[in-house]
Design a protein that fits this description.
transport, cell membrane, transmembrane helix, single chain, Ammonium transporter fold, mainly alpha
Length: 283
């Protein structure tokens, strides 16, 4: 792509940023994920596009490292911020005012990424999704369910403090395993989630196996802690485990049987923490 029009390069960088959310580095995987988001919700796909473009263009303007920009390292945090703003918003789809905080929050991720990189570099640690976590928490803290411009849903879902139903549908629990992979992009429909899993498979079959394995272990951890059935059915108990399993088993370490045991242990800890958070009201 060297020497091509800037717009074409920007599209390539953006697609790499989309795939970076699942720890991949493949524009074709990014294109499949964007197709899955369009299948799930065109509004969410628009928000994701705005987020990844806003953060990538901001990185270009700031003069960030060209290899990081072209590799999509500055795009995935912005995309996650904009997607989660849409998920938490109670104003409904096609609420155009939401594009303003989506752009600003995505652009701010670049500043945080740049600042944290110089700090984490001393410990040889990746910045990863720290900017996304920081920005989305600040956004939710500064707004609320009664905000006149940017209202969002309550932090505690309806019924979270009520009694837990222990009756489970086995088919729905199994269905929640692939949904856990799609929940990384806030997808809740089976078709788009399978397409996202296909995008992971296109980049790395080993990464796809770890994605499913992590979601399955997360679902089992949720079962062991008696989380609400909705968390199991929708994949909310599996997406943290899926990401953790992919990171340990397919990205940061060379795969071996020792690493396999390590990722299972780390994945169990992470998914049990996620399950504890989801049943905190009941406990």
């Amino acid at each position: 792509m060297q020497g091509r029009f800037f717009v074409l390069q920007l599209v390539l960088w953006g697609l790499r940023g989309v795939s970076r959310v699942i720890l991949a580095n493949n524009p074709l995987s990014g294109a499949l994920i964007m197709a899955a988001l369009c299948w799930e919700s065109r509004w969410q796909a628009l928000l994701g596009t705005v987020g990844v473009l806003a953060s990538t263009i901001t990185a270009v303007i700031m003069g960030q490292d060209s290899a990081e920009v072209s590799g999509g390292h500055h795009g995935f945090n912005g995309m996650l911020v904009s997607l989660l703003m849409g998920v938490f918003s109670s104003a409904g789809d096609w609420y155009w005012w939401l594009l303003l905080p989506a752009c600003l929050g995505s652009a701010t991720c670049v500043f945080l990424y740049s600042g944290l990189s110089s700090v984490f570099h001393h410990w040889d640690l990746p910045v990863s999704v720290f900017p996304f976590n920081t920005i989305i928490l600040l956004y939710l803290l500064c707004t609320g369910s009664d905000n006149p411009y940017f209202p969002h849903l309550p932090a505690i879902p309806p019924g979270a403090l009520g009694p837990n139903d222990t009756k489970l549908i086995a088919v729905e629990v199994i269905r929640g395993i692939p949904l856990g992979v799609g929940q990384i992009y806030a997808c809740v429909a089976l078709g788009p989630c399978l397409l996202i899993l296909g995008a992971v498979l296109l980049y790395s079959p080993l990464l796809a196996v770890h994605a499913l394995l992590g979601s399955a272990v997360g679902t089992l951890a949720g079962l062991s802690m008696a989380v609400k059935p909705d968390f199991l059915y929708s994949g909310l108990s599996g997406f943290n485990g899926s990401l953790g399993c992919m990171a340990v088993g397919g990205l940061f370490f060379t795969f071996s049987w020792r690493i396999h045991l390590l990722l299972r242990m780390c994945n169990k800890i992470q998914t049990e923490q996620s399950g504890f958070d989801s049943v905190g009201g009941d406990l």
